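Q&A log
Question type: sequence-to-structure
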Amino acid sequence: FPSHDSKMWRSRFPIKKIRAIKARLSRIGLINEFYQEYMCKAMAPEKQLFKRENFNYFSHLKYSAEPAPKIIVKDALSEGVIEAARPTHIVKTNGEEIPLSLCRVYTTMDLASYDGADRTAIITFAVAPNGEVYIIDITAGHWTPFEKSMQSIRVQVMFNPERFGIEKASAQNDFFYTIDEVQKQTGIKIKVHPLS
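Response status: OK
Response body:
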Protein backbone atom coordinates (compact mmCIF):
# COMPACT_ATOMS: atom_id res chain seq x y z
CA PHE A 1 0.00 0.00 0.00
CA PRO A 2 1.20 3.54 -0.59
CA SER A 3 2.95 5.17 2.37
CA HIS A 4 0.75 8.23 1.88
CA ASP A 5 -2.93 7.89 1.11
CA SER A 6 -3.75 11.45 0.09
CA LYS A 7 -4.97 10.26 -3.31
CA MET A 8 -7.19 7.47 -1.97
CA TRP A 9 -10.94 7.75 -2.07
CA ARG A 10 -11.11 7.55 1.73
CA SER A 11 -14.87 7.74 2.11
CA ARG A 12 -15.43 4.79 -0.22
CA PHE A 13 -12.27 2.75 0.32
CA PRO A 14 -10.83 3.12 3.82
CA ILE A 15 -7.57 1.17 4.26
CA LYS A 16 -9.30 -1.40 6.51
CA LYS A 17 -11.79 -2.18 3.74
CA ILE A 18 -9.01 -2.45 1.12
CA ARG A 19 -7.08 -4.90 3.33
CA ALA A 20 -10.21 -7.01 3.84
CA ILE A 21 -10.86 -7.12 0.08
CA LYS A 22 -7.24 -8.08 -0.58
CA ALA A 23 -7.40 -10.89 2.00
CA ARG A 24 -10.69 -12.23 0.59
CA LEU A 25 -9.48 -12.24 -3.02
CA SER A 26 -6.14 -13.73 -2.02
CA ARG A 27 -7.86 -16.61 -0.18
CA ILE A 28 -9.75 -17.58 -3.33
CA GLY A 29 -6.78 -17.24 -5.67
CA LEU A 30 -7.75 -13.94 -7.27
CA ILE A 31 -4.93 -11.72 -6.00
CA ASN A 32 -4.17 -10.51 -9.55
CA GLU A 33 -7.73 -9.17 -9.78
CA PHE A 34 -7.13 -7.23 -6.55
CA TYR A 35 -4.04 -5.55 -7.96
CA GLN A 36 -5.78 -4.77 -11.23
CA GLU A 37 -9.00 -3.46 -9.73
CA TYR A 38 -7.85 -1.70 -6.57
CA MET A 39 -4.15 -0.92 -7.02
CA CYS A 40 -4.12 -0.13 -10.78
CA LYS A 41 -1.28 -2.60 -11.27
CA ALA A 42 -2.24 -4.75 -14.21
CA MET A 43 -0.04 -7.69 -15.12
CA ALA A 44 -0.14 -9.23 -18.55
CA PRO A 45 -1.38 -12.83 -18.32
CA GLU A 46 1.68 -14.14 -20.22
CA LYS A 47 3.97 -12.70 -17.52
CA GLN A 48 2.13 -14.34 -14.63
CA LEU A 49 4.06 -17.09 -12.91
CA PHE A 50 0.90 -19.13 -12.32
CA LYS A 51 -1.47 -19.09 -15.25
CA ARG A 52 -5.17 -19.77 -14.77
CA GLU A 53 -5.28 -22.32 -17.61
CA ASN A 54 -2.72 -24.46 -15.78
CA PHE A 55 -4.98 -24.94 -12.78
CA ASN A 56 -7.08 -28.08 -12.44
CA TYR A 57 -10.14 -28.17 -10.25
CA PHE A 58 -12.04 -31.01 -8.74
CA SER A 59 -15.56 -31.29 -7.41
CA HIS A 60 -14.98 -33.18 -4.15
CA LEU A 61 -13.30 -36.09 -2.48
CA LYS A 62 -15.10 -39.42 -2.30
CA TYR A 63 -14.75 -41.14 1.09
CA SER A 64 -14.61 -44.74 2.20
CA ALA A 65 -17.88 -46.26 3.39
CA GLU A 66 -16.06 -47.60 6.44
CA PRO A 67 -16.69 -45.61 9.62
CA ALA A 68 -14.01 -43.07 10.47
CA PRO A 69 -11.69 -44.32 13.19
CA LYS A 70 -11.85 -42.47 16.51
CA ILE A 71 -8.50 -41.75 18.06
CA ILE A 72 -8.30 -40.37 21.60
CA VAL A 73 -5.25 -38.26 22.36
CA LYS A 74 -4.24 -36.82 25.74
CA ASP A 75 -1.57 -34.64 27.20
CA ALA A 76 -1.13 -33.23 30.70
CA LEU A 77 -3.73 -30.51 30.15
CA SER A 78 -6.00 -31.62 27.33
CA GLU A 79 -7.81 -34.52 25.74
CA GLY A 80 -9.06 -34.67 22.18
CA VAL A 81 -10.81 -37.03 19.80
CA ILE A 82 -9.71 -37.28 16.19
CA GLU A 83 -12.21 -38.62 13.67
CA ALA A 84 -10.58 -38.97 10.29
CA ALA A 85 -12.65 -40.29 7.41
CA ARG A 86 -10.44 -41.71 4.66
CA PRO A 87 -10.90 -40.39 1.13
CA THR A 88 -10.61 -42.91 -1.69
CA HIS A 89 -11.00 -40.82 -4.86
CA ILE A 90 -10.64 -37.33 -6.24
CA VAL A 91 -13.82 -36.56 -8.19
CA LYS A 92 -13.14 -34.11 -11.01
CA THR A 93 -15.71 -31.54 -12.16
CA ASN A 94 -16.48 -33.73 -15.19
CA GLY A 95 -17.30 -36.70 -12.92
CA GLU A 96 -14.08 -38.59 -13.64
CA GLU A 97 -12.69 -40.28 -10.53
CA ILE A 98 -8.99 -40.54 -9.75
CA PRO A 99 -8.18 -43.24 -7.16
CA LEU A 100 -6.03 -41.75 -4.41
CA SER A 101 -4.26 -45.12 -4.24
CA LEU A 102 -2.72 -44.27 -7.64
CA CYS A 103 -1.61 -40.78 -6.54
CA ARG A 104 1.48 -39.65 -4.69
CA VAL A 105 0.34 -37.67 -1.66
CA TYR A 106 2.40 -35.08 0.22
CA THR A 107 1.74 -32.73 3.10
CA THR A 108 3.51 -29.58 4.21
CA MET A 109 3.07 -27.70 7.47
CA ASP A 110 4.05 -24.09 8.13
CA LEU A 111 4.23 -23.65 11.90
CA ALA A 112 3.23 -20.47 13.68
CA SER A 113 3.66 -19.60 17.32
CA TYR A 114 0.52 -20.06 19.39
CA ASP A 115 0.36 -16.46 20.57
CA GLY A 116 1.40 -14.79 17.32
CA ALA A 117 -0.72 -13.10 14.67
CA ASP A 118 -0.09 -15.72 11.98
CA ARG A 119 -1.67 -19.16 11.76
CA THR A 120 -0.26 -22.63 11.35
CA ALA A 121 -1.19 -24.01 7.93
CA ILE A 122 -1.28 -27.64 6.76
CA ILE A 123 -1.65 -28.30 3.03
CA THR A 124 -2.02 -31.75 1.50
CA PHE A 125 -1.79 -32.34 -2.22
CA ALA A 126 -2.00 -35.33 -4.53
CA VAL A 127 -0.03 -35.86 -7.72
CA ALA A 128 -2.15 -37.90 -10.15
CA PRO A 129 -0.54 -40.52 -12.46
CA ASN A 130 -0.72 -38.01 -15.36
CA GLY A 131 1.23 -35.42 -13.34
CA GLU A 132 -1.70 -33.17 -12.47
CA VAL A 133 -1.51 -31.77 -8.94
CA TYR A 134 -4.60 -31.41 -6.75
CA ILE A 135 -4.67 -29.58 -3.42
CA ILE A 136 -6.95 -31.92 -1.50
CA ASP A 137 -6.89 -30.45 2.01
CA ILE A 138 -6.06 -27.11 3.61
CA THR A 139 -6.32 -26.59 7.34
CA ALA A 140 -5.19 -23.55 9.29
CA GLY A 141 -5.57 -22.21 12.80
CA HIS A 142 -4.14 -20.66 15.94
CA TRP A 143 -3.26 -23.91 17.69
CA THR A 144 -1.36 -24.98 20.77
CA PRO A 145 1.40 -27.55 20.22
CA PHE A 146 -1.08 -30.24 21.34
CA GLU A 147 -3.71 -29.07 18.82
CA LYS A 148 -1.07 -28.94 16.06
CA SER A 149 -0.19 -32.55 16.91
CA MET A 150 -3.84 -33.58 16.72
CA GLN A 151 -4.20 -31.92 13.31
CA SER A 152 -1.02 -33.66 12.11
CA ILE A 153 -2.34 -37.06 13.21
CA ARG A 154 -5.71 -36.34 11.53
CA VAL A 155 -3.98 -35.55 8.23
CA GLN A 156 -1.71 -38.60 8.52
CA VAL A 157 -4.65 -40.94 9.16
CA MET A 158 -6.79 -39.43 6.40
CA PHE A 159 -4.23 -39.13 3.61
CA ASN A 160 -1.17 -41.19 4.63
CA PRO A 161 1.25 -38.83 2.84
CA GLU A 162 4.57 -40.19 1.57
CA ARG A 163 6.28 -37.20 3.15
CA PHE A 164 5.07 -34.75 5.77
CA GLY A 165 7.22 -31.63 5.44
CA ILE A 166 7.27 -29.60 8.64
CA GLU A 167 9.04 -26.30 9.13
CA LYS A 168 11.97 -26.82 11.49
CA ALA A 169 12.82 -23.81 13.64
CA SER A 170 14.19 -23.58 17.16
CA ALA A 171 11.07 -21.75 18.32
CA GLN A 172 9.03 -24.84 17.36
CA ASN A 173 10.80 -27.36 19.61
CA ASP A 174 7.74 -27.58 21.88
CA PHE A 175 5.71 -28.81 18.91
CA PHE A 176 8.27 -31.46 17.93
CA TYR A 177 8.34 -32.79 21.50
CA THR A 178 4.52 -32.91 21.55
CA ILE A 179 4.19 -34.60 18.16
CA ASP A 180 6.72 -37.25 19.21
CA GLU A 181 4.67 -37.96 22.35
CA VAL A 182 1.38 -38.12 20.42
CA GLN A 183 2.91 -40.52 17.87
CA LYS A 184 4.04 -42.81 20.71
CA GLN A 185 0.61 -42.61 22.34
CA THR A 186 -1.36 -43.39 19.18
CA GLY A 187 1.10 -45.72 17.44
CA ILE A 188 0.66 -43.59 14.30
CA LYS A 189 3.98 -42.75 12.66
CA ILE A 190 4.32 -39.55 10.63
CA LYS A 191 7.09 -39.55 8.01
CA VAL A 192 8.39 -36.10 8.96
CA HIS A 193 10.70 -34.34 6.54
CA PRO A 194 12.13 -31.21 8.24
CA LEU A 195 11.88 -28.06 6.12
CA SER A 196 13.95 -24.94 6.67
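Response note: Helices lie at 15-27, 31-38, 145-159, 173-186.
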